[in-house]
Amino acid sequence: MRLQEIKLVNFRKHLDLTFAPGEGINLIYGQNGSGKTNILEAVHYCSLSRGLNRSLDKECLNFSADYFLLKSRFLDDRDIELSVKVSYSGKTDKKIVVNGEELNKFSQLIGRVPCITFSPAELVVVTGSPQERRRFVDNALSQTDKRYLEDLLQYRRVVQQRNSLLSMMHDEGLDRDSLAVWSEKLSLLAASIMTARTEFLFILLEYFRPLYENFGLDEIPGFSYRSTIGKFGPDVSGEEIIETMMHRFRDIETQELVRKQTLIGPHRDDIMFQLNNVEVKKYASQGQLRTFFIALKLALHKYVLEVTGERPLFLLDDLFSELDRKRAESVIQQLESSGQSIITSTERLQMETLHATSINDMITT
Q1: Average pLDDT over residues 164-193
Q2: Domain covering 122-309, topology
Q3: The predicted structure's pLDDT at residue 332
Q4: How far apart are CA 279 and CA 282, in angstroms?
Q5: Closest by CA position to 344, among listed 118, 61, 68, 141
Q6: What are the start and end residues of each CATH 1.20.1050.90 domain in the chain?
Q7: Contacts of 252 by beta carbon, 8 Å cutoff, 6+ apart
């Protein structure tokens, strides 16, 4: 997938800017605060329907405007063009139009423009809460597996409905039959989600290991899935997951009634990233953490390509900060065979394979 052109109107710092990257590795360089990341965020909107690092739509409005407009053209690996237009106004809310047709659901855009991002803020995937790691896995699978996305959205709705029932049962008395129905629905969806997540992690690790070794590090990396239902691995069947969850729901019914929350399931699971069998966030230096995360994103690129047959677009914000020259060159070498990449940096790096553009040279007002 290649971005042909994107036009930003009243988006963040840019009242009117057009960016047309070339194939291969594109570098946008300039001072901090000059609007480099804004361009990546605009591409992210046109790929995944939302802002980079979970920014709110209203936060992306230029301070002097009451709407923003993004118009983009992409070309897939079969040379089929795709146009995406995103508009937002505080009065009319967000609209997304693909090839001239407005989408009924924003989720319909997911997977149409495969896109992988890297930004310093995303390091919380490795260092932060379980929610960040779940989001990483969910975002990756949602771009490559429509069934997973549908199951995940349905699972979230069932959790909300089950929590509402737990709240009413606490206040108005028990209704165990209704609770059992919702518990079974949740268990069926949970089995599908958990199975997909473990399969994904197993495949991703196979891509990750050689990439991590290419950075000259000799630690042995590993991924593992930590489930709230107890011991869980790729050899556990969907039927076993359902049976175990239903049994656990009966065991913790009193706790759930008191807390008015669903206490087990994929929405509370975690993914462990390890080096030499020790959690990365407890062991690694800042440099190792950044290298680990870059390798994770490179592995994800290979996974998406393998599953979809389409090279995803790479958006890498402030990639080279805290990377020494050797590791920076190693990353660039990996990106050379990864399709189109757009990188931001405060400095213009002198590397032959980079197509460099100063943010100041772009047409902007």
Answers
A1: 88
A2: Glutathione S-transferase Yfyf (Class Pi); Chain A, domain 2 (1.20.1050)
A3: 85
A4: 5
A5: 118
A6: 122-309
A7: 263, 264
